[in-house]
């Protein structure tokens, strides 16, 4: 999952996750990652007011929980992002219960 406050690729979070989470035709291969961009509160396609750092912990934990409940998710979730998004990644770590987030990549 990529939490973001700026859209640098022209893709909005409302467009949803990768429609083909495992494009590898080899059934014995590990499934490909399913990138899921998500806007931080109050930015781009996200509702609410953007108040830096105010909601990142709870919003990040809620987002990780949502991704884990999706049928295309095998339960393993990584969160990444540079700069401000690196801080949202650390906020996810603080907001998630043990075992919910497998790979924070700030």
How is this structure best described in words?
The protein has helices spanning 56-69, 84-95, and strands spanning 2-4, 37-39, 78-80, 103-105. The protein is of the alpha/beta class and 106 residues long. The protein has a domain at 58-106. The strands form two sheets. Strands 1-2 form a two-stranded parallel ribbon. A two-stranded parallel sheet has the order 3-4. Strand 3 (78-80), helix 2 (84-95) and strand 4 (103-105) form a beta-alpha-beta unit. Helix 1 crosses helix 2 (84-95). The longest helix is centred in the middle third of the chain and has 14 residues, at 56-69.
Put simply, the count of helices is 2
Overall 3D shape: globular
Radius of gyration: 14 Å
Structural class: alpha/beta
Which secondary structure elements does this structure contain, and how are they paired or packed?
Elements: E1 2-4, E2 37-39, H1 56-69, E3 78-80, H2 84-95, E4 103-105
Parallel strand pairs: 1-2, 3-4
Helix pairs in contact: 1-2
What labels describe this entry?
single chain; 106 residues; alpha/beta; two-stranded parallel ribbon; two-stranded parallel sheet; 2 helices; globular
Short description:
With 106 residues, the chain is of the alpha/beta class. The chain is built from two helices and four strands. Mean pLDDT is 76; it is low at 8-25.
């Amino acid at each position: 999952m990529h939490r973001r406050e700026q859209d640098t690729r022209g893709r909005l979070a409302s467009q949803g996750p990768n429609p083909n989470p495992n494009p590898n035709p080899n059934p014995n291969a590990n499934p490909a990652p399913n990138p899921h961009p998500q806007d931080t509160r109050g930015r781009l396609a996200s509702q609410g007011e953007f108040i830096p750092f105010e909601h990142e912990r709870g919003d990040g934990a809620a987002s990780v929980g949502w991704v884990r409940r999706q049928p295309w998710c095998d339960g393993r979730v990584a969160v990444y992002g540079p700069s401000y998004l690196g801080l949202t990644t650390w906020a996810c770590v603080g907001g998630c219960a043990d075992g919910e987030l497998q790979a924070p990549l700030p």
